[in-house]
Amino acid sequence: MSLIKEKILAFMREEAYKPMTAEELALIFDIDKKEWQKFYKILDDMEQDGQIIKTRKERYGIPERMNLVVGRLQGHSKGYGFVIPDKEGEPDIFIPAEGINGAMHNDRVIARITRAAIKDKRVEGEIIRILDRANKRIVGRFEKSQNFGFVVPDDKRIYQDIFISKSNMGKAKDGQKVVVEVTKWPEKRRNPEGKIVEVLGSINTPGVDILSVIKKYNLPEEFPQEVEEYANAIPDEIPEAEIKKRRDLRDKRIVTIDGEDAKDLDDAVSIEKLPDGKYKLGVHIADVTYYVKERSPLDKEAFKRGTSVYLVDRVIPMLPKKLSNGLCSLNPKVDRLTLSCEMVIDENGKVVSHEIFESVIKTSERMTYTDVTKILRDKDPELMKRYDYLLEDFKLMEELCLILYKKRMQRGALDFDFEECKIILDEKGKPIEIKPYEREIANRIIEEFMLVCNETIAEHMYWVGVPFVYRIHEDPDEEKLQNFSEFIHNLGYILRVTREVHPKVLQDILEQVKGKDEEVVVSTLLLRSLKQARYSPECTGHFGLAAKYYCHFTSPIRRYPDLIIHRIIKEHLKGKIDQKREQKLKKLVEEASKQSSDMERVAQEAERETDDIKKVEYMMERIGEIYPGIISSVTSFGMFVELENTIEGLIHISNLTDDYYIYDDKHHCLIGERTKKRYRLGDKVVIKVVKADLETRTIDFVIADEYEEE
User: Fold this and answer.
1) How far is the C-alpha of 276 from the C-alpha of 30, rounded, in Å?
2) Which terminus of the chain is less hemmed in, N or C, by CB atoms within 10 Å?
3) 54-to-66, 68, 83, 99 alpha-carbon distances in Å
4) CA angle, corner 438, sides to 315 and 512, nearest 5?
5) Phi/psi class of residue 615: alpha, beta or left (left: φ > 0; alpha: ψ in -120 to 50)?
């Protein structure tokens, strides 16, 4: 099937091709008349997928030859939007409000280009067809009047309210959070219509806020019964016959090092110093594929979810608890099946040899980042006594970690030292503390060990030449880097942007700003200039890590790409990949790369949103309080300020009352017309909290008066 599709596309891309009817194409491809219906179905599928376009005259062609672009619509609260093309590297297309034509945020659409890019203006277009509707159900606040109502969507990128007739209100009350099913899509001057299918509760009821996010992103709250039953039927004991097939590492000192509250422990490490001074590092990863067989209900569900989602108050796991916290989790002092990668690493951090094999382990201890850091940094006597038999291992781990880090930095990997935040909730889900998350030596040990293992596996499998899922990070956009270069030039730093900029050049800039006032702003802007990492069947390298080969191998309990590559590695080790299997794997890794990249974005958005909700809730109790902060973003309507606890709020331009301020986008600053006072990205300011709104999830600040600062 995919072969005939490829042939059709190749034919239509030829210079001499003119749009043809289905019949003409069937004749050209010499399709037997009995097979015409099947052929027409292929054309229909390709049209539905946006690969080809059918004109009004029933003729087929490819979008790029017809001035058309297929992609996803990113809506905006003001009614306009942008089409993000399916084709990597193509520019986004601006769609003015009058060109939206009934499409909604996240719909898959075809846009016609109406104006090419000129000077500072981007490509403009209008939507001519909607291929796939994304918002069949929408979460929002119900506003009721006597004979009808409206649902105001939580997602402001869906800019139209949904009309609800009296008969479709159900039991919803005014002001409640609800789920609405769209029954009629919007048209040019008409709002969408819908019916309320679920009432989530009052906005102020504990738990409704997070539940709204779960519903909004369509995250699964439970596993289907079939999946739970399949998982529960898996025996707890590992058959002796399986252990005999594997390398037995149960008498080896192997530990897990994780956060205190982690329950899905999928990686363990071991270390020893060889007589020649080299290090032998073992990375032992839970062998999830032993339990999750291809095409089983577990596998299909894991593929659908793509990843575990870590919300502020709960985890939505990729696999049922029996596996994620039980059978697959490398819990201490119990037998567990693993896939191991043992690497011999020299004193310069070079992996001189490696071996990948199926194993069985029994971890000695379940260590936490906090305890290992207390042992290595604080020399905590109580912990040192308790784990005396592991002290030498921890010292070796620290030694090797610093060697690997130094090697990575020398080759130009980008090390962004951004503080993540830890949100602590009480038993009712109320935020009681928000603080930066410390990245201590123990975290860095695991980070470096997983990175070197991921690279070793990726390079090994690249040269084996079988289909695989790589983790790639493409080179940054030249235009964005050019803007970054201009901005830092004003701060006295020089970056020469060439067609192929090496990450080492950018890392040098990060080194130069370390510890200076402008460090946060330069790092933030550089990060915004980079593309997002994603999964791909092609190994094109990882720019941010300055790595030629990279994959995700170390978390198969919570990421589908890791799971599928474990399967491929094991099949390769057993010599089971023949030509037929290779063709099948090609299709599987393509689908897994796309699905996992998409689900990763959904998870990130949902995680960010639940964090934002709790940050707003936290600041609602702190109205009127004064905090120091740093300007993290400057826009035409004001500036965002980030506090030390990572909470961000907006100072609207109308609240800068001492002058009339003009936005200078080139220099990322606001300039007072009369006073020439500047508020620049990265400047330190002292703010007062004036508003925190849970409904809009926004926090408002004003510049604190001098007497208040004191």
Assistant:
1) 68
2) C
3) 11, 12, 20, 21
4) 125
5) alpha
Could you give the dihedral angle defined by the CA atoms of residues 560, 561, 563 and 564, in that order, rounded to the nearest 10 degrees? Answer: 120
Structure tokens at 514: 């370390």
Identify the CA nearest to 154 among candidates 142, 170, 145, 168: 142
* CB-based contact 355:341 (threshold 8 Å): yes
The DSSP 8-state label assigned to residue 385 in this structure reads: H
Return the half-sphere exposure (C-beta side, CA atoms, 13 A cut-off) of residue 635.
12
**Count of alpha carbons within 13 angstroms of residue 75, beta-carbon side:** 22
Residue 709: predicted pLDDT: 55
Of the candidates 576, 484, 590, the residue with the CA atom closest to the CA atom of residue 536: 590
Strand 137-144 vs strand 148-153: parallel, antiparallel, or unpaired?
antiparallel
Phi, psi of 613 (to 5 degrees): -60, -45
Three-state secondary-structure class, residue 180: strand
- Report helix, strand and coil shares of the chain as percent, to nearest 5: 35, 30, 35
Query: For the CA atoms of 589, 594, 597, 599, what is the dihedral angle to 10 degrees?
Result: -110
Residue 637 has φ and ψ, to the nearest 5°, of: -105, 5
Determine the angle formed by the axes of helices 560-573 and 441-464, rounding to 10 degrees.
Answer: 50
Q: List, in order of start, the domains of the chain with CATH numbers.
A: 1-64 (1.10.10.10), 67-132 (2.40.50.700), 137-203 (2.40.50.700), 225-469+551-607 (no CATH), 622-706 (2.40.50.140)
Residue reference for tokens 């997602």: 155
* Residue pair 629/643 in contact by the 8 Å Cβ criterion: yes
- Name the 3-class secondary structure at 393: helix
DSSP-derived pairing of the beta strands 351-362 and 247-248: parallel
- The tokens describing 288, both together, are 């999830």
Instruction: Find the helix or strand (DSSP H, E) in which 297 lies.
Output: helix 297-305
- Residues contacting 246, CB < 8 A, separation 6+: 337, 357, 358, 359, 360
What pairing do the DSSP bridges indicate for beta strands 420-425 and 431-437?
antiparallel
Q: How far is CA 233 from the centre of its chain?
A: 33
Contacts of 494 (CB under 8 A, 6+ apart): 488
DSSP result, 506-556: HHHHHHHHTTSTTHHHHHHHHHHHSPPPEEESS---BTTTTBSS----S-T
Which residues of the chain have a pLDDT value below 50? none
d(CA 470, CA 91): 24
For residue 306, give the nearest of 365, 219, 370 by alpha carbon. Answer: 219
* pLDDT at residue 414 in the model: 92
Per-residue model confidence (pLDDT) at position 162: 98
Report the half-sphere exposure of 29 (CA within 13 A, side-chain side).
Answer: 27
Rounded Cα distance, 239 and 246, in Å: 12
Instruction: Report the largest interatomic distance among the alpha carbons of the chain, rounded to a whole angstrom.
Output: 87
How confident is the model at residue 1, as a pLDDT? 60
Here the tokens at position 296 are 């089983």
Distances (CA, A) of 661 to 486, 491, 656: 22, 21, 8
Helix extents (H) in 96-239: 208-216, 225-232
pLDDT of residue 581: 97
Report the C-alpha gap between 448 and 458 in whole angstroms. 15
CA–CA dist 475, 89 (Å, integer): 10
Residues 41-54 as b/e (b if ≥16 CB within 10 A, e otherwise) read ebbeebbeebbbbb
